[in-house]
Each structure stands twice: as structure tokens, then as C-alpha cells.
Backbone:
């Protein structure tokens, strides 16, 4: 995986403003989104239920994460057809292998029928399937070097245990930037089910 230079400081400022406003309302408990199937060292294998997301990929400046965040934040702050404010949930998902596409998970009360339509046509509504993911957790503020190292560590554990995966990684960011201690980040990859 190629490491790209990403500017994190503007993202931290935007996340701070956003989280202060929403207090990172976790309107859907993480326990409602997945079950831990197995632990292999630092790695958790989790079964995720189908989830609803809104996503945005900045096709013009893929290294500008604050732009992606701003677009999705505008949507949940009311830039939608009903001007409805939508609670923020954790984690924020960043698809590391799809030009750092950013995804916000929608609260449990929404489905494709009642989720307000975005005013911005570049925002996509995505429904995930039931899937098994491998995740590895790390603390502190994330950066590209940490992400790269955690991907290497996750791949090593999976390889040693003959667990096949898609080799397409996501970053999960759980905490607001003003939380300096006990921060939670995760790298995730989808597991390929054995045909046996």
C-alpha cells in the first residue's frame, strides 16, 4: 500500500467543531452493530450486521480529508431534502483503498426509505451486507505511518493464522480530537469466507 502525505491538522479542527456540536452522539450502540466471534492476539474477528451509511469521496483532491468531512457533516446538519438534523454515530470510517472515501454510519432508526435524500448528488447512500471483519486496535492520534504499521501487523496475524482477506483496509476513528487520552482507532479488513 502506497503511503500518501495527508494533512491531518485541518481535519482535527473540523472534527473538534463537529464533535463539540454533536457530542459524538452514539445513537446506536456498537454492540448493536457487531458480535466478536474470536480473538487472535490483538486481532478481533467480528460479524457485522447490515448497516446504512452515507459516503463521500473527494475526486478532486483525495488528500484533502477535511473537505470530505465537511460535506458529510453538512448533510447530517441539515443539508438534506427535509432539513433534518441526524445524530452522529461512531466510528467515522475511512476507506484507505478507495481514495480515502469517508463514511458516516446512520442511526438505527433510518433505512433507505426514510433516510433524507442528500442535496449534494456526490453523497452516496450505501447499505452494507452482513460481513466478517478482522480489526486491530491502536491508541493515540492516527497518522499515515501508524496506519501503515497497523496494516502490516494485521496482515501478519491473519497470514500466520491462514485467514484470507480482501486486502482492502478501512480506518475506524472513534473519538473526538479534543480527547487526548485513551483514544480508540482501528484498522479493519473484510474476511473471505472459506468455501469448505
Residues:
Amino acid at each position: 500500500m502506497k503511503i500518501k502525505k495527508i494533512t491531518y491538522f485541518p481535519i482535527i479542527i473540523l472534527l473538534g467543531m463537529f464533535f463539540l456540536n454533536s457530542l459524538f452522539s452514539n445513537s446506536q450502540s456498537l454492540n448493536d452493530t457487531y458480535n466478536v466471534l474470536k480473538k487472535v492476539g490483538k486481532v478481533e474477528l467480528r460479524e457485522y450486521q447490515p448497516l446504512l451509511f452515507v459516503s463521500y469521496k473527494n475526486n478532486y483532491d483525495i488528500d484533502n480529508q477535511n473537505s470530505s468531512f465537511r460535506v458529510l457533516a453538512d448533510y447530517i446538519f441539515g443539508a438534506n431534502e427535509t432539513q433534518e438534523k441526524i445524530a452522529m454515530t461512531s466510528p467515522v470510517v475511512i476507506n484507505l483503498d478507495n481514495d480515502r472515501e469517508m463514511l458516516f454510519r446512520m442511526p438505527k432508526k433510518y433505512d433507505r426509505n426514510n433516510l433524507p435524500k442528500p442535496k449534494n448528488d456526490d453523497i452516496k447512500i450505501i447499505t452494507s451486507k452482513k460481513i466478517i471483519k478482522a480489526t486491530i486496535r491502536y491508541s493515540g492520534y492516527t497518522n499515515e505511518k501508524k496506519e501503515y504499521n497497523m496494516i502490516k501487523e494485521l496482515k501478519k496475524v491473519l497470514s500466520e493464522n491462514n485467514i484470507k482477506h480482501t486486502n482492502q483496509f478501512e480506518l475506524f476513528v472513534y473519538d473526538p480530537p479534543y480527547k487526548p487520552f485513551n483514544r480508540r482507532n482501528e484498522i479493519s479488513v473484510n474476511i473471505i469466507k472459506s468455501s469448505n
